[in-house]
Every structure is written in structure tokens, then in C-alpha cells.
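User: Second chain of the day. Same drill as before.
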Amino acid sequence: MTNWNREQPAPHAGATGPNSSPGATMQPLERSLTGAVGAALAAAGLRSRSGLEKVVLTGLGAGLIAVAARGQNPLATALKIEQNDEGETVVRDAVTIGKPAEQLYAVWRDLPGLPLLMTHLRSVEVLDDKRSRWTVEAPAPLGTVSWEAELTADEPGKRIAWRSLPGARIENSGEVLFRPAPGARGTEVVVRLTYRPPGGSAGAVIARMFNQEPSQQLRDDLMRFKREQELGHAPTAQGQSSGRAALTPPNKRGDLV
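Assistant: Same format as last time:
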């Protein structure tokens, strides 16, 4: 079985904080717009001369008004989108890799090389000892987005953390932990990211529905990182006659590689 672990809260929570839960609190503007749309639909329904249209519009409008009054996005809850106490969307995952922590830390600490690990990153330019400029490919209609970030923690072989500086178009922070894996099986690499999605909880839901939400990207990136570190390359299905990847026998630890 693949060594792919859902990240568990740890005492060393760092930049993203341990307190997160499924669901998303709507931002004030998002809440106001939802309530206004609901009221408009309900009013249109009450004015309609069609019985079916009256029921549908009035019911949909009442539902949106109720969602705005509660302030929680039910779709975000259904999709298990997490938020922390600060209202930021939380993305986190972990993978166990059969390599020493110091070696894996060195790969992540090479900031200009991060685009090789995180596919949504276009570039990271080092500005000085702490500051750097990050450029990402964001979902449409945002396109390419850049911001400056600073290192907030740098503990060789243990932890790296960063956060965007004021003025960033998308506020975000991140943290990578390197922990000894149980049974001396290598290192558990834990990645936690937080961000404020454009459009609030609705933006996070739309991104998740179109596979543009960072949780899926992070999972793919970590799995590729594991394969590159343990195999020296990341197998792909490119060039194969079938879209299904060939099955690979388990290694000595029983992991799929």
C-alpha cells in the first residue's frame, strides 16, 4: 500500500495553526450578495403567474436567504473544505519518504527549485535572506499572480515556514515539517498551506469542482516528490498506448512505487 497519510495535527503547528474544521464561513460581502440574490429570487417567485415557477424560485430564494443568515457555505462543508480560526482555507497532507530528513529539507530549502516540486508555481525569485517573490498559475480568470513572501521559520532538517507580505493579491502562508517516520521508515513530510481564495468560500468551492483547488495539486505534488526521491524519477503515463498506468509490484516495504 502506498505510504500516503492524511496529515494529523501536531504540537508543532506553526504557521497554519492546528485549529481547523470542515466547512467555510462566508465573508461579509459574499454573505450580503447571497442574501440579495435570494431575496430577488423569492420576490420573482412571488410575482410569477406560473405555479411551478413560483414554487421553485421562492424555494430557491428562501434557501439562499437561510444560507446567508447562517453564514456557512453548505457546499464547502459537503466538499470537506477546511477553514482555520482566522477564516483562511486550509490545505494539508503528508507523505512518508524513505530518505533522511536533512536530504529532503535541502530540496525544499532551495526556493528557486520549488517550481519543480509544486507544479502550480511558475517561479520563486530570492530577493534577500528572508524575502522572495513567488509567481503562480492561478485558476481563470486570475491568470498569473505574483507576490512577495518572507521566511518565518527555518530549522534545518526539521521545518520551513513562510507567509505572504502585506499587499499580496492572494494572502497565503505555508509550512513544511520533516518528522521521523514510525518504524525507522524514513521521514514523514507534512505540508500545510493556508490562503484566502478570491470570491470567498464560493471561490474555494468552484476551484474544487474544477480540480483547481490546491488540495488536489498538493496531493499530486507530494506523491511525485516521493517517487522522485525514492526512484530517481516520477513515472508517468505519457507515451503509453493506454491511459491506465501499468501496475507496479510493491517494494520490500510493501509500498506501491
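The chain has six helices and twelve strands.

User: Great, on to the next one.
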